[in-house]
């Protein structure tokens, strides 16, 4: 295929990828909202809800490195379509079971675990395929569109789910998910996952290794590439310390500041709105020249925003002062979140060797997911024992220290040798 034909195909991929991501993510968001409310209504137990959450997180943590191996050693298109089909079968099976026997907790937990595994295979395979689907000059645009789809689903899913929950049965929620996965799979079937690949089918066959050897080699590649190791380490730290915000925001706003549930819903929605605005910005601007340096600045901003969440606890603002302050703060947090993720995502698409890309993304997903329940548990306990502002200040300080060390000037210059010619005080420290 000539270059003009490739660009035309890549343009098709750009929009098809975004639409399929939007459909599947939106369906998942509606389903997750409905199933969460159903479990709470059925049992009235927070523990039952927590078990369903564990069934979603734990399988992703355990199987993500294996998914990375599969993505690197087998045709990515086949992996995506098979995993999407598995998602359709998992939700469809739960739907058939519900129609014949009614929903039970055991059936919900089983389906949640199966959907988590299949969706994770899709996610890792897709994440490692973006550079094969899109021409290098538009990878940032693709990442921006991807973030936009996630933000729209985050905003719209609970809204649609809340509207439907009081009027339709759980079978309708399940049917929406089945249709969403099926439509996404149909769109993905039309895509050429080898458009910009540098590997031949013969090379894939020759490079194929045993599972454990392949996973060990992926970890070894990660250790040898210091810049990519820094990105993964920082991402893990971000997930851990910002779980303090995920736990702390509702605790501070609802329990301590007595913010009404409706107003708190708007506060949380501002994160997704900020992500959407920042994603649109990245989809139209030129590619960031020094993404690691750019993301370092954004992480520093995020760290300061984390500490700033504590201000209403010590400033004595009025009720509306607290609400407006948190609305603006969460909007800024959503924007800075995309300012961290998008440039780094583009950098990893371009800098990680194609034959290792799946395993690197798999390891990243596994470690990041593992930090979430650990962070939720630790900070959930700390908020009961220590004033919330101290927890937030400590997390902010730790994140600043982690960022200052892991993204120190020597690492920045190693990633961008052209910066080595600049005076030290001109390089972000």
Automatic annotation (TrEMBL):
Domain Major facilitator superfamily (MFS) profile: 13-412
Superkingdom of origin: Bacteria
Pfam families attached to this UniProt entry: MFS_1
Gene Ontology molecular-function annotations: transmembrane transporter activity
Membrane topology according to the record: Multi-pass membrane protein
GO cellular component: plasma membrane
Coiled-coil intervals, chain numbering: none
Sequence intervals crossing the membrane: 79-100, 106-127, 148-168, 174-193, 227-252, 264-284, 296-317, 323-348, 360-382, 388-407
Subcellular localization: Cell membrane
Predominant subcellular localization, coarse grouping: membrane
Keyword terms: Cell membrane, Membrane, Transmembrane, Transmembrane helix, Transport
Name of the protein described by the UniProt record: Permease
Protein's organism: Planococcus rifietoensis
